[in-house]
Design a protein that fits this description.
It is a single chain. With about 140 residues, the chain is an alpha/beta fold. About 35% of the residues lie in helices and about 15% in strands. It is built from three helices and five strands. The chain has a five-stranded mixed beta sheet. The longest helix has 21 residues. The N and C termini lie far apart (about 85 Å). About 5% of the residues are buried.
């Protein structure tokens, strides 16, 4: 009659989990040692580095601001335009500039969609790449 310690079946169970706590401890100690000793090891020759001077190679073009009031009248800045043909002639000149300016459209909320659509179509016809709508941000309260 033999005596077995543990289970009744006589088989020993092997623990399959690895205890990583000592490994983590050693790694943290090594990390601290390297952080402390690396500035001492990297004794570099003292030199004067060149000073960077930021100079703009290209000036940013002025944005084109187009305002459409509730009656459908088109304004370029403060100047009132007769129709979209006059706007097209102006934008055709602006479209060939490098870099191309952005067009900001400010349409009155009571303006008809048709009048704003005509302005957008005119900017596309003139070859303007960036067209954006300026809106009022919502109230925070």
């Amino acid at each position: 009659m033999s005596m077995s310690v543990g289970s009744d079946s006589g088989e020993d169970h092997v623990m399959s989990e690895i205890n990583t706590t000592p490994l983590v401890d050693i790694m943290l100690v090594l990390l601290i040692i390297f952080l402390i000793t690396s500035p001492v090891v990297l004794k570099l020759q003292k030199i004067d580095l060149p000073i960077e001077a930021n100079q703009a190679l290209q000036s940013k073009p002025e944005n084109v601001n187009i305002v459409i009031n509730k009656d459908g009248e088109i304004y370029l800045g403060q100047k009132r335009l007769k129709d979209t043909n006059e706007l097209f002639d102006y934008l055709k000149v602006e479209a060939v500039k490098i870099p191309q300016p952005e067009v900001h459209v400010r349409g009155d909320q009571e303006a008809r969609y048709e009048s704003i659509g005509r302005v957008i179509f005119t900017t596309q016809r003139a070859g303007i790449q960036k067209v954006g709508f300026i809106t009022e941000p919502p109230d925070k309260g």
